[in-house]
Design brief:
There is one protein chain. Helix content is 25%, strand content 24%. It has 405 residues and is an alpha/beta fold.
């Protein structure tokens, strides 16, 4: 069995660094145009070059998403962007539009072309058609079972790779093809500008009873009719590999750098353990617990098991059990130079996620600010501090604190 890559998201440079430091084989991101996430900061052209250089220094790849459906007035902007991407060494484009695909072949022929999940590929004939036109990978629609994926794998050329989402937010519409946001807010989900009205709270009105609403109640706060759960496939690493998937994709270009670190680390360790242990593989409990330490909606397994994923109808919010409180910039012995993110106190027990190894707890025994003064707490976001702990904290570690629930 060939080891799949771990493909992680990056909405900005900090996310990119975390994805790479915590083990991504490849990272997908976007320039300022043509990407499906306008909520992310995304990357200016000079930042794209920095991103490619940084990824290649880790032995990892960069895939640029060009997966919107561009309007005619945007087409003239594509040739220069595609040529520039090839010039700086981008490894692949993720494309949804046939016209963009043909332009990429013309202006960046050395860059691999991957077909976005937005294309809605659910059968081997469509996959083969894209392959015959020059695609090297297809990102299958999310509405696929393990058996569906294995069947497609068996019927397509062995050189054609399959990529599948394994973690993150899901859309209530087929492969993200949604018009609710466009209708309700004028923000087009197919151009990366979704307002996520599927997460909003809804009530029912009766036309002859003006001013009266009738809640369709799943809770006292109302009903969330379209609010999908988040996908989590960490328990199914063996099945993902055996299905013939080439790339395990983590959703989240609009998510935080902390999210990128935790999810990448968890799937990297789970996959490495499985490829080493094979039939004796048992998922380590700490790996699964890691994915409970990020903000998420209720988890489920998407369509992989042949059952509908369902919605979270009782609430529109996230489950948050931990907060990131600091990042370790450098350390020597039990003294760490940190950048603070959320408030914590001297005496707190902190949860540390190092870029290698497994999480561990450390006690904050002292804090000194940039003026050399000892302080009892770290209340100022992005403040630089020196922290003494009872254990050495490796550089680039993410430091967390469990919430008081």
């Amino acid at each position: 069995m060939k080891r799949p890559e771990i493909l992680s998201p990056a909405g900005d440079m900090e996310c990119l660094r975390n994805s790479l430091q915590f083990g991504a084989d490849a990272v997908y991101l976007a320039g300022k145009e043509f990407g499906m996430r306008t909520a992310s900061k995304n990357f200016e052209n000079d930042e794209l070059k920095q991103a490619v250089d940084l990824a290649h220094s880790y032995g990892s790849k960069i895939y640029i998403t060009i997966n919107t459906l561009p309007r005619n007035n945007e087409i003239p902007l594509l040739p220069d962007f595609l040529s520039y991407a090839q010039e700086i060494g981008v490894d692949a484009f993720i494309i949804a539009d046939l016209g963009v695909f043909e332009l990429a072949k013309k202006y960046a022929p050395k860059v691999e072309r991957h077909i976005s999940t937005q294309a809605g590929i659910v059968n081997s004939e469509t996959a083969k058609a894209w392959y015959n036109m020059g695609a090297s990978r297809v990102v299958l629609a999310r509405e696929m079972t393990f058996d569906d994926i294995a069947d497609i794998r068996a019927k397509i050329p062995k050189e054609l790779e399959i990529e599948c989402f394994v973690h993150g937010a899901m859309c209530v519409s087929f492969s993200g093809r949604c018009l609710i946001s466009s209708y309700m807010t004028g923000r087009d989900a197919n151009r990366g500008d979704c307002a996520q009205p599927c997460r909003w709270k809804y009530h029912l009105y009766e036309e002859n009873r003006e001013g009266q609403f009738f809640p369709v109640e799943e809770s006292g706060k109302g009903t969330y009719l379209y609010n999908s759960r988040d996908m989590c496939m960490i328990d199914y690493i063996p099945q993902l590999v055996k299905s013939g998937i080439s790339s395990l994709k983590i959703e989240g270009r609009a998510k935080s750098a902390y999210y990128c670190a935790v999810t990448t680390n968890a799937y990297r360790h789970a996959l490495n353990d499985y490829m080493k242990e094979k039939d004796s593989f048992v998922l380590k409990s700490w790996i699964k617990e890691e994915l409970e330490k990020i903000s998420h909606r209720e988890y489920n397994t998407g369509f992989y098991l042949g059952t509908e994923p369902g919605q979270v109808t009782s609430n529109g919010g996230y489950i948050r059990k931990y907060d990131i409180v600091a990042v370790c910039e450098e350390s020597k012995g039990n003294v760490a130079e940190i950048t603070q993110r959320n408030k914590f106190l001297v005496g707190d027990t902190l949860d540390v996620l190092p870029p290698t190894g497994i999480p561990f707890e450390a006690v904050c025994m002292g804090l000194v600010n940039k003026f050399g003064d000892s302080v009892d707490s770290a209340p100022h976001a992005m403040e630089s501090l020196t922290m003494t702990t009872d254990k050495e904290i490796p550089p680039s570690s993410v430091i967390r604190k469990k919430r008081d629930l």
